[in-house]
Structures are given as structure tokens and as C-alpha cells.
Amino acid sequence: MFKKASLCNHGGIQLLSSSISALPPTRVSFQASCFTRSPLKSDRGYATASDSSENPYQWPSSSSFTPYDVLNLRRNAPYSKAQYYDLVKIYHPDRSCDEHPLCRNISPEVRLQRYRIVVTAHEILSDPARRAAYDQTGAGWSHHPQRYSTAAEAAHAWGPYGSTIYANATWEDWERFNNRYHGKQQHVVDQRTFTRLVVLLVLFGGAVQASWIGQMNSGYEKRLREVSEDSMRFLSGRRQQTVTQMPHNDARVQTFLIRRDPTGSGLKEEEQEVYEHELHSLRRAQSRPSNAHESETSTPVDNLANVTPMATRRPDAHPVES
């Protein structure tokens, strides 16, 4: 280090003195660099104004400064992180200012704002693709300190979470944050959706009820038809049986009397003569020999033999009024 410095101090001027006039103005900076100090490095955690006596860093005062102005970098020069590290040490909100001239007379809000601007400038210039896009269209850069007169305006412009370097939380972190400060979201059902759901449920229930009632009615009507058909068949059979067994009216009358009073004396005193007249006349007709007539037709007595008494009259039973 000391040998290079002595070379610049003693032999450098003698070797280059003859060619200074022939060099273009841009090459003079090589000579001047021999007399300037190396990039700002010290044991302190920040840069000071005394580190660069000839060209100290100052925050851009233009209303339309660029990332190159923020990092004090020429547009065609290769990117170096040295200036970025020095500015981060100065403007980082978690570090102490220690009366540094760049952050001594500014508020914490402005200091945080400048730190974010430095980070954004570093993100643009350190990436060749983003740097080329910025050089062509100005993409990715929209920070102008002069339009932020208050901390509220600066926070609104930058958003609540600052640059994209701070937006590194996962969705689980955001869920925990929202549940902690805003509570769990309550899902409110739309009234129209709820009404439609209720109407659909009512219609579905009505359709099921109508189907069930229809099936019940069909079964009931079928059962009624079956009972009616059975009754009709039973009555028709009895009618046919009666006509077959008792072809004459006299036989039907005598059958009725026997079923009414199996003793053949009648239920009342005045009925005894009727019973005797009808039944005894039948018996007398049966006692007459009539072989030819018996071979052709059956007598009412034969019909009476097939009749089963429905009830037996008790001797002590009183006559019942008909």
C-alpha cells in the first residue's frame, strides 16, 4: 500500500508529465485519483464528512433525482455496493445516527423514507435486467422526495409495508396477523341466496309430500275397489243360491218364517195362526202321495230341510215385539 502511494507521489508525475497535454480531459481523473483517498472505509460503522474532503456525499436536491444520483454512480460505470453499504449504515432506522451530518437534521420519518429509496435504487442498479429496463423506460422508479411534505403522505405513497424487500411474509404470517388484530372473518350469506335456498327446500318438500299423498290415495282407492268387488261377488252368490234353492215365493216365505221362529209357533199370539196356516198347509201337502210330482220338482219341505236354524228359542223367552 505504501509502495503504491510513493510511486504516485514521486515517480508518477515525472513519467506522465510529458503526456499530460496529449491526454483528453477525461484521462486527467487518473492523475487525480493518485492524490485522492481510497473508497470510504474505517473502523466506524458509518461514513463521515471527513472521509472525503474533496467530494463529500450529499443527498440529491433535485426534484427528479435518479437511482444514479442516490448512489452517486455514473450512468455508464459498473455497479459497486460500497456506496450502498455506507448509506444503509447512515439511514437504517435501527441504527443510531450519532450526529452524522446526513441524518442529524432530519426526522425519523424522512430518514426511513430515504432508507427505502436507497434500497430501491440498489435493487434496480444491482440487477442488470432491471437496470437496462430503467435506462430505457424508467421502469421501477417513482420516488420523488419533494412531493412528500408529511410523513403521512410518504407512508401512503410507499404503502404500509415499505419496499418489496419487506414484503417477504408468507400467507400463514398474514393469516396470523389478521386473526390477531382483525379477528376471524365472518362469512355473511346473501339474503337473496338464502331466500332462494329456502324456496327450493319448500318446493322439494312439497313435491315429496304430494308424491306420498298420491301414493296413499291410489292404495286407498284400490283397496276400496277390492272390497266393493268382494261384496258384489258375495251378494251375487247369495242371490243366485237363494234363487236356485227356493224357486217359488211360498218357499221363500216359509224359509223366512222358520228363520224368524224355528219353533214354528210365532213370536206373538196372533202370529200363531199365520205360522200354522203356512207351515201346516205345507206339511199336509207333503203328506199326500205324489210320486209323479216328487220326481219332477222338489217340495218346500225339502227346501226347509236344507235350512239351518239361526237360533234356538228358549222356553222361558218372552215374545219380542216385531
From TrEMBL:
It holds the Pfam family DnaJ. Residues 277-322 are annotated as: Disordered. It comes from the Eukaryota. Residues 66-138 form the J domain. Residues 313-322 have a biased composition (Basic and acidic residues). This is J domain-containing protein. It comes from Penicillium oxalicum (strain 114-2 / CGMCC 5302).
